[in-house]
Amino acid sequence: MRIAFVAAEVAPFAKAGGLADVVASLPKTLAKLGLETAVFVPRYGSIQGDMAKVVSCSVDFGGERNEVVVFRALLPKSNVPVFFLDFPPYFGRPGIYGEGGEDYPDNLRRFAFFSKAALISASALSWFPDIFHIHDWHTALLPLYKRELGVPGKTVLTIHNLAFQGWFPRKEWELLGLSPEDLALAGSGDWLCALRVGLILADFLTTVSPTYAQEILEDGLGLDEILRSRAQDLVGILNGIDQEEWDPRSDRYLWTTYSERDLRGKAFNRRLLLQALGLFGGGPLVAMVGRLTEQKGIDLVLAGLERMMTMGISLVVLGTGDPKYEQSLREAEKRWPQNLKVLLEFSEEWAHKVIASADFLLMPSRFEPCGLTQLYALRYGTIPIVRATGGLRDTVQDVDEGGNGFVFHEYTAEAMLGALARAVKLWREDRKALLALRRKALLGDYSWDRPARQYLAVYERVLNR
Q: What domains can you pick out in the chain, each with its CATH number?
């Protein structure tokens, strides 16, 4: 069975979020199960390094004939090829989706072109997949172009975050040269939706956790009718992580490695992180790693920050996002310089260091389709404090119920502070129980093995129809 992954991101070449990690890891695991997999991604201006030119092809798009050059590299530690579609007018820019916090205004054209070019590139390579596995709105027009071009194979669309649907003004859609019938698939009115096309035309739909699959059927963020009509074709499959890349026993980013047998290395990393960041460190070290957006619950953290500081914790926040949240955190850092450090950047090295060194990871998300950071934390014996939503509900169970973390339900600062207070109490009063909890987390299986077999079952189901 051949599976072509078509996506806007793939780690380590182009990454803006968890999508890139999924597209980097799942094809490798499927390859170990005997499938032939490949990844198709734009060649952005930021992607450098040696790669082989393999083919050129012509793509008719918007009434023009365009030449695309296809380059090839391999996913790290694998034989899975990545095919980079090079077309500088759309992809020769440094950003994936935009720059300076602003999206590129022609993103609809960029990713519609990519979707069509991926189909034509696969044919030019004589690499005909049984399944085109597409991801989010960026590639949601691929089933439409597949029908137009008469390309064989089925399509599976994975929704990583329903909040991002690809809405664009009708005048942008008209530049694509679609027929009125095809344009109607994107909706009506002055603004049309790219994801809607994929939800209608894809042969099967998946999303990234069982709970999130149920949540989007209950509240489809404006796409309710279509999602409910496809309920029999929608499955939630929990994401895994790359356990070779995220491994405290061999992590190249850490000051020292450690395992469940000897956790002294975790304490050593903690001490050096506190020193590096100039934090006092008299209480538990809490980390928050991810995008600084309303989705991630940063508003709850800011609302509860003063009371958090009275608990005697040290808090490290790593990430970038909404400028208003960044500014509020900068101001708070000045107020509590010994207990709060804000790293307004995206850094793989700092992410590994902070997650490995922290006692607890805070994820008070308003909604969370899957979440990978809590899985990284568990892998390193860092205990998550999460709100019970989406994939967080599926991966973290409360310690009071024999679980692996601290869970709260209401989306309020009070509920979040209550869960944090329970974690701090455990840290201060029962180190033996905390150590057992860490070891339990370190011994968990967060790999792609089980999810990959579930995706294989989806592919077989689609092909056997």
A: 2-240+449-463 (3.40.50.2000), 264-442 (3.40.50.2000)
User: CA-to-CA distance for 438 and 418, rounded, in angstroms?
Assistant: 21
Per-residue pLDDT of the chain (465 residues; tens, 9 = 90+): 999 999 999 999 999 888 999 999 999 999 999 999 999 999 999 998 889 999 999 999 988 899 999 999 999 999 999 999 999 999 999 999 999 878 999 999 999 999 999 999 999 999 999 999 999 999 999 999 999 999 999 999 999 999 999 999 999 999 999 999 999 999 999 999 999 999 999 999 999 999 999 999 999 999 999 999 999 999 999 999 999 999 999 999 999 999 999 999 999 999 999 999 999 988 999 999 999 998 999 999 999 999 999 999 999 999 999 999 999 999 999 999 999 999 999 899 999 999 999 999 999 999 999 999 999 999 999 999 999 999 999 999 999 999 999 999 999 999 999 999 999 999 999 999 999 999 999 999 999 999 999 999 999 999 998
**pTM passes above 0.85:** yes
Q: Where are the alpha helices (DSSP H) in 105-208?
A: 107-124, 142-149, 170-174, 180-184, 194-201
> CB within 8 A of 457, min separation 6: which ones?
none
Q: Any alpha helices (H) in 6-149, and if so which ranges?
A: 18-32, 88-91, 107-124, 142-149
Question: Which pairing describes strands 2-6 and 64-74: parallel, antiparallel, or unpaired?
Answer: unpaired
Q: How many contiguous H segments (helices) and E segments (strands) does the chain have?
A: 18, 19
